[in-house]
Structures
1.
Amino acid sequence: MKNISRSFEDYLKSYRRSIEQPEAFWEELGAEFRWRKKWDRVLDWDFMKPEVKWFVGGKLNITENCLDRHLETRGDQNAIIWEPNDPGEEPAYITYRELHSKVCQFANTLKEQGIKKGDRVCIYMPMVPELTVSVLACARIGAIHSVVFAGFSSRSLMERINDASCKMIITADGGYRGDKITGLKDIVDEALVDCPSIEKCIVLKRTGQQIEFVEGRDLWWDEAIEGKIDICEPEIMDSEDMLFILYTSGSTGKPKGMVHTCGGYMVYTAYTFLNAFQYKEGDIYWCTADVGWITGHSYIIYGPLAAGATSMMFEGVPSWPGMDRFWEVVDKHRVNIFYTAPTAIRALEKCDPALVERHDLSSLRVLGTVGEPINEEAWHWYHDMIGKGRCPIVDTYWQTETGGFMISPIAGITPTKPAFATLPMPGIVPAVMNEDGKEEIGNGVEGRLCIKFPWPSMARTIYGDHQRFHDTYFSGFPNKYFTGDGCRRDEEGYYRITGRVDDVIIVAGHNLGTAEIENAIDEHENVCETAVVGYPHDIKGNAVHAFVNCFHPPKDEDDLRQEILTLVSRIVGPIAKPERIQFVSGLPKTRSGKIMRRILRKIAEGNTGDLGDTSTLLNPEIVDEILGGNAL
Ligand code: WTA
């Protein structure tokens, strides 16, 4: 592929060109793919509306690029290597030819079940190859997939299905994760009670557990695909047709369905995958994320497959059957590029070094990280213990909204600095803004991170709510995309992401909206009001501290805590459970009635020396009470 940097000079040259002649730069990359009709214009954009279109008028199908295009040159190469949860079970090796055939066969199944271009299909599955097959089969026929992470509760699933009026859901009887079995179909059944738009539910048999079957609605995967041919003409899509919806937490309770489109997303994910990781023919690449998150969409499925890579999918967890599961898998499959999250690194770093040393990690060449800022200690451990000082750390900063990497080193080429995402990818024009909305010019500055120019894989809207898309990302700093993150640009122009500056907390790499958790806790009959804030946590990066004000003093605080945890688990999902719950008799409020989260955040952080001026509060006395209270 063109514009792949092979030296730091190359990178600087590409970067300069991508800024000075963005259309020529992206046109060259677009031309590497298979289009049914070439675009009329490379880019139309207006950040005030906002409206962004790439490869305008171009026609394509992304699966033709991820599958058909490779059949001649690499039909027998593995597209997917699947490592099951249980090391005793056999891995699956799926070549490009086999994947193509499975995707076509399932695409024909979807069609037979009444799915057409533009229909929304929800996918709620464990990390099995059929998840990738489902995603690509939707894309093959122009259906819009909405993958919901299989750790979400039935309520969260129901809200996401209804927000997009999905017509079908694809799931499994159950899923394995470590020594646990999740009853996925039971959760789906509970959600579907309130999902009038769902007509069909396809169920993959994974665990073989007992499940309910609803006549006329549910059908088994194996029976549904039986007799379907494995040739399916791809639906011809406009470059700007919707490819998928993926929900991310926002600062109000309602999750945002980020919409990604076909053409630009394909070009950008494939290019950044090849460039940042310096993927070479024959490499085995392993991203440990779940396909339920954007990392899995862009860098397990679309980017690597569009680039013709071998991408590994892992069903399990890093801690089972032992804390060396990752290293065992790296050794077993001779993984060359390994991409994971700081929360996993921090958990593994605490273990006995013998767990690492007993495995041969010499195949590793590049190590990646994503999801939250990586602290220096974890960076060094990853670099020294796992990479043996030989493997560059690619700290990729990006978001569900951005579709692909924004700021990241190019492996082995960009000189790295611990805890820095380093420099922008070609085509990305960051701006650091101060609180007055002015851009900080030059280096050695700190502020809020915005992007000034469109890039091909950016989200185009929030499904069904373009106004919210505008208000959330394009209103704070006019004519710029606001990321919601703070950052520092050091003396050398390197970026260090300092974390969210809005009401999103990143816990173990998962974005959680404080409002979403507060709403869940407030549903308890004895809870009057709740404020949720994040505080630093050794392994999870951040953890949730909930300040809960009850109508009546709880009879037994531990019982109420347990009830609240169950409630959050049921409504949002187990990942959102607060680490600490503190009962209070009121929350600090401004005179206009707003909760002063700034103060609560400091208290939760244990940073109580400097609470700022509390005298203007409506109820300053409450601060002392909270300081004297305890959180368990
Ligand atoms: C954070 C994940 C620091 C950031 C791809 C962003 C990071 C949010 C990094 C998006 C990184 C992601 N360094 N912070 N390398 N990568 N973040 O939508 O706060 O799940 O806004 O996308 O994660 O999370 P999301």
2.
Amino acid sequence: MVEIADGVHWVGAVDWDIRDFHGYITHRGTTYNSYLVVGDRVALVDGVKSRFYEEWVRHIEEYVGLGEIDYLVSNHAEPDHSGTIARLHREAPQAEIVASPRGKATLEKYYGALPVTTIKERPTLDLGGKTLSFVEVPMAHWPDSMVSYIPEDRVLLSNDAFGQHLASSQRFDDQVDQGVLWQEATAYYANILMPLRAAVRRALKQLEGVPVEVIAPSHGVVWRGSPGAIVEGYSKWVDGYSQPKVVVAYDTMWGSTRELAYAIAEGVAQGGVDCRVYCLRETHRSDVVTEVLEAKAVLVGSPALNNHVYPTVAGFLAYLRGLKPYGKLGAAFGSLGWSGGAVRFVEEQLKLGGLELLEGAPQCSFKPTAEEWREAYEFGLGVARRVLEDSGT
Ligand code: FEO
């Protein structure tokens, strides 16, 4: 039994096992947070993923019977939060479902006709001693997304925003390892919210001047110790904050593209800039993207396979392009084999992803000669110079 504030209880579910969240690797599982807000009347905010229905109900019934729930608020219709709402409503038909207008449409698309009141009709719920007030935050994460605010307790139920995919037996930010917490909060922003920065910025703007002491997202732990810190983190990320850091992501067939990757990395490091190198066969694309979030440059290497890009690199590029990294430099490199085909493709994809392409992609036929190794190293030195210039150091 966990109290977020007086009369506000966590009644969610912990998913210790999930390791793939729509293409994003979740090394530490996740939680689906649901909150019970108890005044004279009772509101349940957000559901959980469908397979956690029994666990969710067990947690709710620690406080109230299902027949005592007056409102069922759906901040967001993605099934990790809405997957149990229709089923609960069958068992608690007295509960009035409340959602944004687009939330109503999306819930009905997933679950068929449901009696949903929209927040246009009910912008606030007076629970008697507690108020829930709703604000639409479209595209943070889906068009229907909204947040719920409890002014009496200064608690923001922020749904996806400020979340982390982090399963734990603790419920609060000040109870978990800070390195792990920030690693997961960063990975979450990079892999989910990075392409939505304009919408997230608008949402942050809406938050300005609103007194918030607790931010309770729908995934991971509740920010009660440092709610300001995560808002500050998001403010940096939506503005495209980067460090003087370079990410090199590559795959290799016979080791030649790896030789180029390592030569570039040596050059970058010699130039005084931090460099992280990832083989895309060994490291999941979503972990690389987490590193990309605060990097200034992303260098992508691929050998030619059948005159085209290597499949692991193609997958990474598709993922990266969708995430629309902002304000990054990019470059391609790789072994051409005897005819090439990959480097050009990588360059096109980086450009389409909005990265500013650096000239002089290191390439070699088959295996790099000593001179080609040196050129790759020099290229790395040049990247470091440019990164430092752009960083103003
Ligand atoms: Fe956690 Fe957009 O759902």
